[in-house]
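JOB MANIFEST
job_type = single_chain_structure
chain_count = 1
residues = 457
[input]
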Amino acid sequence: MPVRAPLIAGVPPARIAALAEWEAATYAAARPKCRAALAAGAGAWLDGVPMHWMRDWPQPFPMVVAKARDAKIEDLDGNVLDDFCLGDTGAMFGHSPAPVAKAIRHQARRGLTTMLPGEDALAVGVLLQERFGPMLWQIATTATDANRFALRVARAVTGRPKVLVFSGCYHGTVDEAMVQLAGGQTVPRPGLVGQAADLTQTAVAVEFNDLTAVEEALKAGDIAAVLAEPVMTNACMVLPEPGFHEALRRLASDYGALLILDETHTQSSGLGGYTRRHGLQPDMFVVGKCIAGGIPAAAWGMSAEVAERLHRYHQTRPPGHSGMGTTLSANPMQFAALRATLAEVMTPKAFARMEDGAAKLEAGLAKAIAHHGAPWHVVRVGARVEFICHPTPLRNGTEAAAAHHPALEAAIHAALLNRGCLIAPFHNMMLVSPVTSGKQIARLIAAFEAVLAELFA
């Protein structure tokens, strides 16, 4: 008798391949103008795109966007998609929020960069404290930069070299986050381009939710900071177990390490992020992506105690380059967009609407999964929803990596796109914005139901 290939998350591999082939052909047939534009203009770019991840979408060629507004994207061929990716959180409040667009137009007539503060800058500092907590803040252009700068401060004030991260974490392209666990040992993530330094000399990886491993690493006495997402977000969402964050705070304090929480993705939890919603107490805090409504900006803050330790450190070093800050960071355009977003877009009313819509999306996806008997589940953190092709909740990054099924997920993403719904390409994440309509949510649920019907027929 012929041997049948093992199922992938409950689905026959042949069915996945057939769906992927059909969806690729359907996508290409609907986008002749996109294909022609790429053929005409992509030759100047490495691999045809200005950023490599534009090739990571599961389509035969990238979609060329004509415009994005609210929670919709339209391509050159006039195909309109309900956007649940939202720039992988960068446009979490919708594309071009009206207050932000107005602020950008106004500031464009008054100067784009000065290396000096204006009134918007002074207002933004107050708004950051109101939204995220009474920390002392600095501005960066990306959350990657903000994390780098926070780690420099942590090393300076502790005199220690290493950073503890969680295997499978997401902190942008910070070197210290480019490690993982393999066979119980910290190793560089595979596939790093041009890596020369030994990352294991500056970073230690442990599993999320493993407090015993955290304490063992901290006992060595060389950890300057624990850098953590409140919820793991980039390798299937992994929620913290009850008491995890409280214990993490205690352990960091007991062993003299700073606790840095990176809320670049988990701002979806609500106003002030997961930290404020759950009463967490980090020493330092990083936030980026959507805080300026789509304009590149990030912020990093520190407690008054850490700030005082940093001031004392500065008295011991010679003047000169600190290794922190970039010339265009904290420019007037950033502050105009930050002020508009923090004051007029990132509001309690907006988050309430986002949470309500996300709860409906979560329920609809879970109902479709149950109806088809798929061995999958759904997880939600505020406005952030993810279906995971695994039967039970995940505990750490290693489990999350094993729960990824790239071929299956790519086929699902392509099928959803052809049914008018765009989700994040790197995982199965969906965001609900304040301007996402109930009809859009219903269409995504219906599209997901239709794709499951094909996979589990």
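[summary]
The two ends are 23 Å apart (CA to CA).
Residues 67 and 130 are 33 Å apart (CA to CA).
exit_status = 0
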